[in-house]
Specification:
Blueprint: E1 2-4, E2 7-9, E3 32-33, H1 45-73, E4 78-81, E5 86-88, H2 95-121, H3 127-151, H4 157-164, E6 169-171, H5 179-183, H6 185-201, H7 214-217, E7 221-222
Antiparallel strand pairs: 1-2, 3-7, 4-5, 4-6
Helix pairs in contact: 1-2, 1-3, 2-3, 2-6, 3-6
Amino acid sequence: MAWHDGTVTAPLTPPDQPGPHDPWQAPPSGSYLAPPTGDPADPDTATELRQAAAVVVLVALAGIALGLLWLWLAPRVPLVSDDTAVFLGNSEGEEAIGADGTFVLLAIGFGALSAAAVFWRLRRGGVLVVVGLALGALLASLVAWRVGIWLGPSSDVVGRAREAGQGVTFDAPLELRSVWVAVLAWPFVAMGVHLLLTAAFGPRDAEPGWPGYAEYHGGPVRGPLAGPSSGSPAGTPPAGGGGGAA
């Protein structure tokens, strides 16, 4: 502090040194940033594994409903016997491919519903939940396929032809001609719908912040880098600071 013509002037900061409030200067030794706090709603790995296992089981059980609907809605293929061989009752009909189409349409509907249910219930689920959805959908399609065949007409065509008698029409066994196309419909649709829902309505990631600023890292600054406490009004000099000369 210097006297010039009866006035007090404060010493100027040298031009080659940063000012005391320069935001770009390196933090003093011993300063550190508080670690960012994670989102408590994000599940950890163990929780996500449990969620994925629950998704696999519940979606796979839904395959029973698909199998029952397939058995109920699939068109029947009529067969007829003349005591020497078994023939299609209607060689011009489309019943032979109707079972595959019915299964695929039902699988598409179940795939969309299961994806919407998983997204609504576990919106913050991670990759493991999505994998569980795909695996459960695949198992559900296999379960539906076997349930429909098991509860449908017997596969013993010769025995049923004998029971029905000559010239009497009976139903052919329920079957899928394009097995893998029909079985993969549910998991592919479920994955696609879940991806669309996540892109449209899923939680957004926080924007990356500037390093060195607590407001972008979600935590306070501790150490010498921390500013004055919130209780001190702005512009109040620290206790013990130098005052003006009398």
